[in-house]
Amino acid sequence: MKTIAIVATGGTIAGTGKKGKTAAYHAGEIDIDSIIETIPEINEVAHIKEYQLMNIDSNEMTHEKWLILKNNIEEILSDDTIDGAVVTHGTDTLDETAYFLTLTLNTPKPVVLTGAMRPATATSADGPFNLYQAICLACHGESYNRGVLALFSNTIYSGRDIEKVNNFKIDAFDQRSLGCLGYMQDQEVYFYTQTSKIHTIKSRFNKRIDSIKSVAIAFYYSGADAKILYDLASDHEGIVIAGSGSGNYSQAWLKAIEELSEKGTIFVRSSRISQGIVFDDEIFDPHHLCISSNTLSPQKARVLLMLALTQTHDRDEIREIFLQY
Question: Does the keyword section mention Hydrolase (predicted)?
């Protein structure tokens, strides 16, 4: 029987509220030991080691906490007796943490993120079953060297592409236009595909990281004032544009981007639309000053740019990074 570490960070899976209710609850209040006690079936699939690293609402997650999480997971998995890890996490920002760990963890061992849409005190809480399946997934031989995974509602996602697409339903996640990696039925795992993007042990970002560069997201909307770009550039080394359509914006924004790029700010074009791909565009970026996010959401493009800027400010090199990761 394999040994799996559960690294708890809080979230709705550890939340409490009025008995039976699914709304108006406090995230990150129950410790991981108490959650595990409600799932006796876990003892039939793995030996468990619990690590209560944090107990927070995921909206309190920061890049400093990401580094703490990365370093602790790597230290835990350096133990030869531990075969994999499951990270419990709030769903609001889980997609960002999953991608950060995908880019920075230096381990081939399975790391699976999961959480819940209903608090532990709700009728028919989804957290215990998600946790049970995540542990089964971490035990599975085919999970090895697939990069960071996520498990929700019988569905396996990649850490790069998972995205929260619904703030209400139990089945709240998707992978944009790419489909999932596989499915689970109870403890059974069925993989159908895997990511071709660089991750974990082959990533250029998996060494020790002491600090991360500051990157902002600028959301474009009809009539948006380009002044926001100048304000953000004053204390951020990079800006991700969440543009309309295929990463588009006004001529006023284009002028600001060109001026600020000449002064050293790195821009990435992404889309506020949840489906599709952002390619290079000679109309909205005629001088190729922006880097295209490809299939990354604005928040994930921010994660990659933050890490890229720790190593280089060369626009062409960062453009290549966005193609590879």
Answer: yes
